[in-house]
């Protein structure tokens, strides 16, 4: 599910950023703090909404979702689909169709970021710059723009909004080169919640009514 894998990002046009720019240093300092704090969490649980915008058709649709992450493992629930990933195997469960597809992570699309990479995406393959501040829900928020170094990506910029007081994400916006944008609002976020490894695997034995399609 390409859309579900990309619900955590946003992009626009590549810009040239000079290494000596103070806004670059400020962005890196802030991103380092965010990454260090996030890596200290044993798990992350969040409720979110994702808005899909099609600029050419002038349409938009909004969906609610949930995500649970533990290291590289995650479970996502959105748009009538559950995605389980245990670090090796992925299960994509279509609830209405009563169907689950099992695949290896190596078969996923390389250009699409998985949810677990959200808090560390800037560490490799991106330029970044501090883009200012705003207020969300009465709280100060810092804005950072990320730009992929490779121009063959389907996106051009990721814009992340981070609460200044706790270094947690407020929202993420992604602008695709094809005019399709993804806007993710983090409604609620909890950290260090109980998360057993079994929660990131779909147990087919417990769901005999679900058709299994194994493409590994």
Question: What's the short story on this structure?
Answer:
The chain is 10% helix and 46% strand.
Protein topology:
Elements: H1 2-5, H2 22-39, E1 44-54, E2 59-70, E3 73-78, E4 81-85, E5 89-94, E6 99-104, E7 126-136, E8 139-148, E9 155-163, E10 169-176, E11 180-191, E12 211-214
Parallel strand pairs: 6-12
Antiparallel strand pairs: 1-2, 1-11, 2-3, 3-4, 4-5, 5-6, 7-8, 8-9, 9-10, 10-11
Can you describe this structure?
The protein is mainly β and 216 residues long. It is globular, with a radius of gyration of 18 Å.
* Class of secondary structure makeup: mainly beta
Q: Residue ranges: pLDDT <50 for 5 or more in a row? A: 5-19, 109-113
Rounded average pLDDT:
84
Given the C-alpha coordinates, what overall shape results? globular
* Major beta-sheet overview: 12 strands, mixed
Number of helical runs? 2
Q: How much helical structure, as a percent, in the residues?
A: 10-25%
Multimeric organization = single chain
Descriptive terms for the model:
216 residues; 12 strands; 2 helices; mainly beta
């Amino acid at each position: 599910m390409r859309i579900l894998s990309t619900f955590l990002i946003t992009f626009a046009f590549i810009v040239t950023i000079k290494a000596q720019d103070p806004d670059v240093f400020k962005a890196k300092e802030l991103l380092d703090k965010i990454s260090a704090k996030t890596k200290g969490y044993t798990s992350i649980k969040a409720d979110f909404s994702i808005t899909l915008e099609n600029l050419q058709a002038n349409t938009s649709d909004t969906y609610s979702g949930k995500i649970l992450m533990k290291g590289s493992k995650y479970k996502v629930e959105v748009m009538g689909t559950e995605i389980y990933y245990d670090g090796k195997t992925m299960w994509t469960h279509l609830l209405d169709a009563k169907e689950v597809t099992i695949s290896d992570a190596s078969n996923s699309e390389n250009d699409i970021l998985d949810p677990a990479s959200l808090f560390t995406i800037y560490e490799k393959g991106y330029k970044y710059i501090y883009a200012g501040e705003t207020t969300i829900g009465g709280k100060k928020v810092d804005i950072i723009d990320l730009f992929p170094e490779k121009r063959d990506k389907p996106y051009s910029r990721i814009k992340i909004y981070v609460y200044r007081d706790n270094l947690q994400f407020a929202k993420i916006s992604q602008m695709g080169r094809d005019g399709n944008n993804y806007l993710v609002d983090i409604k609620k976020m909890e950290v260090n919640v109980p998360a057993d490894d079994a929660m990131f695997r779909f147990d087919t034995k417990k769901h005999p009514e679900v058709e299994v399609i194994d493409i590994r």
